[in-house]
Amino acid sequence: MEDHELWGLVNNAGVSVYGMIEWCTMEMYSRVLDVNLMGVIRVTKAFLPLIRKSKDNYMDVFSRITNIGSVMCRNTFAAFSCYAISKHGLEAFTQCLRKKVKESGVRVSILQSGNFLQATSLYTHDKVNTIAAELWEE
Questions:
Q1: CA–CA separation, 76 and 43 (whole Å)
Q2: What is the pLDDT of residue 114?
Q3: Lowest mean pLDDT among 5-14, 15-24, 58-67
Q4: Which member of 18, 58, 83, 123 is catalytic?
Q5: What is the rounded CA–CA span in Å between residue 38 and residue 89?
Q6: What is the CA radius of gyration of the chain?
Q7: What is the mean pLDDT of residues 34-43?
Q8: Is 18 among the catalytic positions?
Q9: With 0-12 CB in 10 A as exposed, 13-18 as middle and 19+ as buried, what is 88?
């Protein structure tokens, strides 16, 4: 990728499960953390050299990394602990990254989106039934 540059990166990963803490398996926590937090870290680490390269080649233009968080990291519910924990972690990662790359002129932002439960089909009837069945089996 020597000849390539990247001006911006938007990390918009998000999966969720619901269930009270005692009901959620460790596999459920791992699955959500792997996408919502570890996936963002993996993608950022993979593309950060290209972001820095773009900034180095054009000093008057800012490169940017934007992570999509959630208001759920500020206003949590016990039934969404897997998701809330992952978004808290994303907030911490974003703050660390922002401090690390600030001197190089790369800007890092986090957008904390609102309630997607009503605005999207994140929890369809089938999805709710699948999660409920998984919780019941445990």
A1: 26
A2: 74
A3: 58-67
A4: 83
A5: 9
A6: 17
A7: 97
A8: no
A9: middle
pTM for the model: 0.82
Give dist(CA 112, CA 74) in Å, integer.
9
Contacts of residue 119, Cβ cutoff 8 Å, sequence gap at least 6: none
Question: Are the CB atoms for 73 and 112 separated by under 8 Å?
Answer: yes
Residue showing tokens 């009270």? 20
CA angle 42, 48, 49 (to 5 degrees): 125
Tell me the per-residue pLDDT of 42-98, one tens digit each, with 9 for 90 and over. Answer: 999 999 999 988 866 666 667 899 999 988 777 788 888 999 999 999 999 999 999
For 10, phi then psi, to 5°, come to -115, 115
